[in-house]
C-alpha cells in the first residue's frame, strides 16, 4: 500500500503516487536530454509531445512537464502554434559570453578555494581520477571507430568533467557562487550540442585538469588563477573551431 500523508488543509495525498510521478517525469526529462545530446534530436528539429510519449511508452503529461523544464534551460524553445523545437546551435556571441561568465566565476572560485586546499585536495583527486576513468571508458567503447547504441559513455564523461569544476566551486564556500555555477550546467550541455560529437578533446582536458590539480597541490594562488584561466580559454578555442 502507498503511504498517505496529511496536507496542511487537513486532506490527504498519496505520497507514493507523488514520488512515482516525479520519478517518471525525471526519467522522461533524462531520456529527452539524452536525445538532445546524442544528436538524435538535432538543433532546430521539432519535439512532438505525442510522438515522444509513444516512443518512451508514457502518457503525454510527463513529456509536457519535461519539455517545460527543458525550456527553462534554453535547450528547447516553444513556438506558438508549432509546439517545441530543439534550440538552434549557440552563436559565436553566445559562446563568447558563456566562457566569459565561466572565467569570471571559476577564477573567483579557485581564489577562494585556495585557502581550503587541505579539505579540497582529497575530493579533487577523486574527481580527477573519475574524469580520467570516464575518458578511458570512452576510448574503450569507441576505440574501434564504431558508434555505440547510446550516449551513456559520453554522458558519464561529460558529467565527470563538470564535476571536477563543481568540486572546486563548492570548495569556495559561497552558496550563491555554487548556485550560479549549477545554473550554467544547462548551457554547458547546450555547448555540447554545438560542437561536433565526433570530435573529442579528452586528452587536452585531462592534461589541463592535471595542471589545475598540481597548482592546488603547490599552494601557489597565481598558478591557480593562470591554470584555470588557461584551461577555459583553451576549451573556448576548441569549441569555436568545432562549432
Secondary-structure topology with pairs:
Blueprint: E1 4-6, E2 12-14, H1 15-38, E3 46-47, H2 49-56, H3 60-73, E4 76-79, E5 83-86, H4 92-113, H5 117-142, H6 152-171, H7 175-183, H8 185-194, H9 202-218, H10 221-242
Antiparallel strand pairs: 1-2, 3-5, 4-5
Poorly predicted tracts of residues: 1-9
Averaged pLDDT: 85
**Topology as H/E string?**
EEHEHHEEHHHHHHH
Largest sheet: 3 strands, antiparallel
As laid out across the biggest beta sheet, the strand order is: 3-5-4
Beta-strand content bin: 5-15%
Number of strands: 5
What is the number of helices?
Answer: 10
How far apart the termini lie comes to: 52 Å
Helix percentage range: over 70%
**Gross morphology:** globular
Based on CA atoms alone, the radius of gyration comes out at 20 Å
Secondary structure category: mainly alpha
Describe the structure.
By secondary structure, the chain is mainly α. It is 71% helix and 7% strand. The relative contact order is 0.12. Mean pLDDT is 85; it is low at 1-9.
Could you give a quick summary of the protein structure above?
This protein has 243 residues and is mainly alpha-helical.
What are the main properties of this structure?
single chain; 243 residues; mainly alpha; three-stranded antiparallel sheet; two-stranded antiparallel sheet; 10 helices; 5 strands
